[in-house]
Every structure is written in structure tokens, then in C-alpha cells.
Amino acid sequence: IEQNSSVGLKHDLIYFVMPDRYRNGDLSNDDLSGYNPTHTAFFHGGDLKGLTGNCQDDDGLARLKKLGFTAIWLTPLVVQQPPTDGGAGYHGYWGVDFLNVDPHLGTNQDLLLLSECAKKLNIKLILDVVTNHTGDIIQYQDKTAYIPEKFKSLKNPAWLNELSNYHNVGDMNNCWSDTSCMKDGDFYGLDDLATEKKEVYSGWAEVYGSWIKKFGFVGFRVDTARHVDDLFFKNWSPLIQEQAREAGIKGFTIFGEVWEQSPTDLMRYARVNKLQTALDFPFQRVAVEYASASSDASTLRNLFEYDDYYTDIESSAQNLVTFLGNHDMGRAAFL
Prior knowledge:
alpha/beta; 9 helices; globular
């Protein structure tokens, strides 16, 4: 039996790109609040027009095609929370309007043009999505959560403005949940959604299903997948797969960011929580250790001997997404 034959990215070479840091193709949106190319915590001017390029012979998608990449994974493109003195959401993980492209990166039409170029070049598009949290809008007075008056309608769609759709138990490192702070607490202060609620997981299916249907994404990388409730992927993934089928996309792939460096911990998310597949953090750790000569080949051998732990009728270690470095830890040579 071919394990998990529905995974559609198993033969692809994926280029991971943060559009704000790639190429500035549109100077007209550089004067927006949060733009400061002299500071690493703010927008630097890169945008979807810069990533798309002329689709023929410049430094946009045509360059990535020439380098041999067959898929592009983009960090979240949604509208970010207002910038603070300390930084802005140039990376995409502080979303508030999940139905539109952040104006620093361009417009929905710009994304459509990028999608058309990718299709012309036979490049697959993967979108980074956030389901665990939104930007940091909810505040606390003692242990009582509230939304500041000026932000009561900031989030889009409207159900994201309902306090009852969040756990509201404070930061995950110091929360007052009766269960798990890792699941219920705010991820570094970001508003933690009650992903176990039908209104939330069904709402996310509608939101991200619209990105599939409008722009032709063939896969999602799910941010902070370790922090949603244990039933989330059982509830949400079938709804997303249905949206993909309605859009005529075969082999739609959902891979999660589960920062677990032990195979016996990571495999539970695939076999028990039913996350389709995941980034291979155990391989990243061992491969970098081996390459830097801090361990020998026996460490690699031991890692691969755990592969069968991932195996059931729907899961296989062969589907894990391999990488050596990323935007959170640094590139492989740095490590």
C-alpha cells in the first residue's frame, strides 16, 4: 500500500519566502505605518509585486523556477495588527483581517497576479496559515479579558471579535487555565483562540477555504500546530480538504509546525491528532548535529530507526517535510 498517497508535495523542492524580505516591487506602499528598513522588527518594503516579477527573466518567480524550485511557501499574507513602538507584523503572524492581503505586501489583485504567474511557470503555491491565535488585541484587567473600544471591530471576519471565542487565560508561560497553558494560553501574548469550538474551526475552514478557491493554493503550512486542541485537525482538516476538492485541487497537503525534536513526540500529531504531516524537526536537529561534527552517523541511524513509529494506513515518515534551518532558528550554515 502506498502510504498516504493523498499527500501532494512529496516530490517537491520548496522555497520558503517571507515576501517583505524578498524584493521591493512597489514603492507606493512603502510609506505605510510600520515601514522602517533600518530596523529588523519592522517592514522593509518587499511585496507580492517584487516576488512575482515579470514572470520571464527577472528576480521574481522566474528566478526561483530557474533555481529548480517547484513550490513556493509564503509566510502569512493577511492584514496585521497596528504596529507598536517595538515592531510590526512584517512576518505575517500577527493577523487581524484574515480575508485580505496586508497593504504593505500589496492587494488581493496582486496575489491573483502572482498566482497566475506561478501557474504559468508550473510552480505550486503553499500558504502559511495561523489557526491558534490572532494578533495581540485582547487586554486583561487583573484576570478579566476585554477588547479596547477602538479595536472592537478590528478583526475580520466578525466572529474573531467575540471574546467568547478565545480562552482568555493570559500568557502561556503564566496562565490561569484549569487545563493546559500550552494549549489555552496566549502564545507570547497573542490572542489564543478556543479552537475546540465549532464556530472557530468551522470559521477557519471558511476563511482559509476562500484562499484556496480564490488563489489556487495547493497546501497549507499550519503555524504553532502544537498549541491547538488535540481534536482540531480531526475537525478542521476534512473541511479544508472538502474546500480543496470543490476548487478542483487534488492532493491538497496540510503540514504543521510541531516543534518537537523527538520522533516519539512528533508522530503522535500524525497518528493520534490526525495532522496530515509535519515539518521534520527531529531530522533537522540530528542532521545539523551531524553536519557540524557534534555527533556521528550513529545518531542519524538511530533517528531513521524510529521511522516506523509514523506508519499507519494514513501516515508515513516519508511524507515529513525536511528542512535544515528556518526563520525562527537561523539558516543551516549559521547553526
